[in-house]
Structures are given as structure tokens and as C-alpha cells.
Amino acid sequence: MGEAKQLVCGRCTQAFSPLELRNLCSCGGPLLVEYDLDAIRSSWGRERISPIASMWRYEPVLPASLEEAVTLGEGWTPLLRTPSLGENVWVKDEGTNPTGSFKARGMSAAVTMARKLGAEKLAAPSAGNAGGALAAYAARAGLEAHVFMPSDVPQANFVECMANGASVTLVNGLISDCGRLVSEQKEKNGWFEVSTLKEPYRIEGKKTMGYEIAEQFEWQLPDAILYPCGGGVGLIGMWKAFGEMERLGWIGSKRPKMIAVQAAGCAPIVRAFESGAETSEPWANAHTVASGLRVPKALGDFLVLRAIRASGGTAIAADDQEALDGSLAFARAEGIFGAPETGACIAALAHLFDPGFLERNAKIVVFNTGSGLKYLEAFATRFSRRAASEQDKLGGLITPR
Q1: Phi and psi (nearest 5°) for 341?
Q2: Cβ atoms of residues 371 and 128 within 8 Å
Q3: pLDDT for 357-394, tens place per residue?
Q4: What CATH number does residue 148 fall under?
Q5: Which residue, 260, 252, 247, is CA-closest to 214?
Q6: How far is CA 384 from its chain centroid?
Q7: Is 1 among the domain residues?
Q8: Residue ranges making up the domain that contains 332
Q9: Total domains in the fold of the chain
């Protein structure tokens, strides 16, 4: 159980063997993993899902077996009803993952396959959480990790990488500049690159969020999903998962509205969606406190835009003040201290209710992609500018119980 059939380019559909280390297609497109779903359907059903409390409960539709997995117990995160956000709004709390964010899922799968296929040294650019996850899973696997991060990365992410034994290079620039340095140095240093969408398996880890939502809702998908979108791997992965589950006979053809949430200071997907473009243009002078959203150009932007449009969803941006206020208001109301990326989703939700794009009684899932503890500098600065007596102003984004 747990083996890919082939890798297929998401852009040109060229197929490759999954039995060798590979980054992108020859056309530059990202590679997606395909399985023999007909064979899997005949031997595995919903009633045979493993009881283990991790993403590896879905082993038959993952690229490696549980015995091969490099795991720290990632996945099977809480899906919590949050009345303060709306009548039927739920939060998928990815901040409970190892390393404190959803990046643990993707790196578990990527590091597992890199080790299985013979890699010994791994490298990636990171806005923060992916680097911490790579460092942790590489340490677990006994592999080298080389992480390139913007010099203004949150301190928690830098310390996490160092503590887990990674080699860290701080770059005076954005994640795109970090990615360029990895590409320039990987061949001479013998690194296998595990950047977002530049290897096939981080999507496979992230797609398990879609399987979990379906299972936790007893195989009835929600009406909408709000997802903070930097590189967009989680959104792409969940869309892939929904297609796989339909092929397996586990769900029907109904899909949630997929809603990509970005930062006002870096919103290439929003701009492309609004203009009707199939791909995005690089965002100049990208800036936001939500470091995971500071991605000027996503490699898989065309896949994100396809999913949004096919689902009847949308793309929307929130500014930094809205994102920080959203996170803090949510923490006060629900006891879940989420990242600024989560706050952006909470702010976006309010905007989507007002014009009626989302019905007030719709079943909606908002993703908390990481713990707010990873962003203490951003939140501490916010508090230092506000007297304690003014904090009641934070209540505007939510409804008190």
C-alpha cells in the first residue's frame, strides 16, 4: 500500500516514472502524483481507513507506506465549530501540527520520498514555517537540511531551523530571491530541492487536509473553504483530494467554493482572478506581516486559479491591520491564537458575508494554517501601539456569544 503510479505534468500532461528523484517537467511545470484509483477502490474503502491519528491514515493514496514514512504525528487536526464567526463556521486548526503549522504535512511526504529515492541533502527557500518543518523532518530522517530565508523572517522560524540542525542562510530579499539562490547552488552542492511545487510530494501531504475535512464531516463537503494562499499548495492539494475521493466513490460531485485569501500588500492571485488571467504576474514590492502570504509569484498559480473558477469560488485580499485584528479577535472569542494568515481569512469572511457571496447559514471551513506563537514580533508590535483600554475595538470582526 502507498505507491504512486506515475507523475504527470500539471501544465503539459507529460508523464514520468515515480521511481526516481525529479523536480519539474521539462516544460517547467509542476509534477502531480497519480495513483491507480480503480485498483485502490477495489481493495480499500472508507470503512477500512486506519485508526491512527495522523495523515498517514490515508496510506493507500499516499506515495509511501507507513513503515517508510518520516513522521512526527502530523495531520488529523481538530475541526472546531466557532460560533463567534458565524452560525455554521468551522476552523480547521493546523496550528496543532508538529512544528506548529500545516507545513508539517507537506514536508513529511516530501522528506519521506526524498529519503526513499536516495537523496541525502535537502534544500528549500522558505518564508518561515516550511523551513522549520524541513529542518525537523530532515533531522528525523537523518538527512542534511539547507534553508534559505528572508533576513526579516520571524525569529521563531529562524531559531526552530537552527535548533533542528539545519544550515540557514538569511537573504536580504524575498522568498523569490531565496529560491533563486537555491536553484543556483543546488547542483554544485548535491542538494535535492524541495521547494514549493518543485517536487511532487508536498502536495500529497497537503491534500490530506481535504480527506480529513470530508471524513470529519461524515463525507459531506462544506459549502465553502477559506484558505490563506501564498504558494497555494494546500488549495491545489485539497482540490486534488476531492477528485480522488469522487473516483473512489466516497463523495459526490459537489465541491466547496474554494476561496483564496491573500494579503493586500502581495495579492497576485487576486489580481489575476479579477482580470480573468490564467496565470499571475509577479507582485512588485511585496510586503505583509503575514510572511506566509509574501509570495510574489506562485509556480502553481494556474492550478490555484483553475480550482477557484471551477468551484465558483473567489480570491480576496485583506490588509495587515485587518489580519492582525482578525487573529486577536478570534483568539479572544475562541481561545485559538492563529497566525496573521488566519486573521486575513477571518477578515475576508466578514467581507464575503456582507454582499451575500456566502450565505449566513452556509457550512464554511476557515483554515488556521499555523500558530500565532510563530509571529510574536508582529503581535507584540501591535499591542505596543494600543493601550489596554482600546482593545475592545477588536470585537468588530466577530459576533460575541
Answers
A1: -60, -40
A2: no
A3: 999 999 999 999 999 999 999 998 767 555 555 555 55
A4: 3.40.50.1100
A5: 252
A6: 30
A7: no
A8: 79-100+201-397
A9: 3
Q: Are residues 250 and 391 in the same domain?
A: yes
In a domain, residue 242? The reply is: yes
Of 245, 300, 263, which Cα lies nearest the Cα of 31? 300
Q: Is residue 66 part of a domain?
A: no
Amino acid at 343: G
Mean pLDDT for 73-85 is 97
CA angle, 285 then 290 then 292, to 5°? 90
Burial class from Cβ neighbours inside 10 Å (0-12, 13-18, 19+) for residue 360 reads exposed
What CA–CA distance (Å, rounded) separates 241 from 262? 22
Chosen domain end from 158, 193, 228: 193
**Residue 16: how many CB atoms within 10 A of its CB?**
15
- The grid coordinates listed for 213 are 475535512
Which residue, 120, 176, 109, is CA-closest to 148?
176
Whether 116 and 219 have beta carbons less than 8 Å apart is answered as: no
pLDDT, tens only, 33-68 = 999 999 999 999 999 999 999 999 999 999 999 999
Residue with cell 543546488: 186
**What pLDDT is attached to residue 387?**
53
**Are both 189 and 206 inside the same structural domain?**
no
Q: What is the overall mean pLDDT for the chain?
A: 94
pTM of the model: 0.94
